[in-house]
Amino acid sequence: MRLLFVTTLLALFVAPGWAATPIDEIADAHPRGDVEVSNVAGEIKVTGWDKEQVKVTGSLGKGTELVFERDGRRTLVKAEVPSRTRNVGSSDLYIMVPEESRVTVTGVSADISVTGVKGALRIQSVSGEIVTEVFEEDVETKTVSGDFQIRGHDQPALLTLTTVSGNGRVDGIRGELVVQSVTGDLDIRSEVLDRARLRTTNGDIDLQAGLGSDALFDMEAINGDLRLDILGDVDAYFDIETFNGSIDNSFGPDPVRTSKYAPGRELRFTHGEGKARVRIKTLNGGVTLRGS
Amino acid sequence: MSRDRNQGRTDDSLMEAASRLPTDIRPQRDLWPDIEARLGTPAEARPERRWRLAGAVAAAVGLVTVSSLVTLWVTDRSEPVTVSRIQGPMAVTRPARSISGDARFGPDYLLGPKYERARQALSEDLDSQLEALSPETRDVVEKNLEQIRQALAEINGALADDPGNVLLQQLLMAAYQDELTVLMEVNRMARSLPTRKEI
After folding, report:
1. Which of A2, A187, B112, B129 could form a disulfide with B81 if both were Cys (CB 3.0 to 4.6 A apart)?
2. Contact between A260 and A199 (Cβ < 8 Å)
3. Short-list B148, B199, B110, CA closest to A78
4. What is the CA angle A211-B169-A285, rounded to 5?
5. Which residue of chain A is at minimal alpha-carbon distance from B153?
């Protein structure tokens, strides 16, 4: 049964048109429930805590209402803009959730931060910035032009990043990483990765990571440059090829021309026993391979 | 030895019997008048042959048609054909206005009609969904899609010179996937923008 236990605040009627309306609401929540948050513009900050409650503070912009409801394991927090309303003020939502919650956050131009939440995360912002952490559960972030910053805790998890033009930095990820970018630049640091599938059209990708046992790294670019710095021992088979780009490697044999008449280069070799597999392909982008 | 001698005697008796047979056998009636009559009316035989020929052609055409329809039905129900050979300039429907050209796969192939339809539908959706986004975001999406399409054109151009290049084929397929992903994701994002929920 659907339980509506906090009334909607009609900010438009209880405050002057130009002022933000402060909010301070709290409600019980399932310790491993789903929390869905959405806000068009402003800020969304979600933090995990050790209570079985969801608390919402912050302020609502002009013309915006707060919807705060619980339905079983699901809690909804929404800064809602009435239909056909123009010149809506931005809202700031600061939300505490049980730390094992699964959280979905959707924003348009809202900056989003999700920290201390150990459940699975799905975060989407069109143009706002995304800052979040990865623990052991899957994390998925999507953005058009917003930048992102993601910090892992060296625990195995799946991280999926989709960006059109946003730039991003990822640290401390372990497990599996899937990245797709059009023009965004990505800077990724990881002690060990088991799987990495990174693809960009014109953005640059810089991956610094150790190779997990039997790791599979797959990097592709059209015009973007790809750089792979392998941390620790290198034990892998490398399959690197460019159609028109350079290959600069600090170990292994020299790259060779793919054809007497074509500008491309290729580099295929095994270092160590070849337990891991590294595949890097570009059209015009350059490839840099570093390792010891 | 005795077997050979016996065989020789049998052969001699057969030859002797054969030599006693008449050298010709006359028919019981004169057949020439009927033969001459038929030779004199060749035009009567042709229509029958023509009808037989027309029937055979019709049957062949019917068989080919039925076979093609069955093939079309079967392939339409199973996995989509990924590429089809270019038959002519009007082989596929022109894509939406925001798509600059056919989904070519190298100089000789087009991605299949299902792909074209999906691409066109997504592109048309995006045209309407973009209205929901800010001008800045719209600009970002359009510029990035343009970059993907320039990449597609560049790879296709390179494939025209080197159609068997596996790297180019892989990058081209990935670039088409990227285009669809951007179209789908931006559509999905624009649709899921927070709006008022009537309660």
Report:
1. B112
2. no
3. B199
4. 55
5. A222
Give, as one character, the DSSP assignment of residue A97. E
Cβ–Cβ contact A102 with B under 8 A: no
By C-alpha distance, which of A104, A96, A117, A114 is closest to A52?
A96
* pLDDT tens figures, B31-84: 666 666 666 555 444 555 555 655 555 555 554 444 444 444 433 433 443 455
Structure-token pair, residue B165: 């290049």
- Residues B117-174 pLDDT 10s: 888 889 888 888 888 888 888 899 999 999 999 999 999 999 998 888 889 999 999 9
Query: CA–CA separation, A227 vs A229, rounded Å?
Result: 7
Q: Min CA distance, A83 vs chain B (Å)?
A: 6
Q: Which residues of B touch A80 (CB under 8 A)?
A: 194-197
A180·B193 Cβ contact <8 A: no
- What's the gap in Å between the CA of B193 and the closest CA on chain A? 7
Partner-chain contact B162 A81, CB within 8 Å = no
Q: What is the dihedral of CA B131, B134, B139, B140, to 10 degrees?
A: -120
- CB contacts of A262 in chain B (<8 Å) are 162
Query: A5 φ, ψ to 5°?
Result: -115, 0
ipTM exceeding cut-off 0.90 for this assembly? no
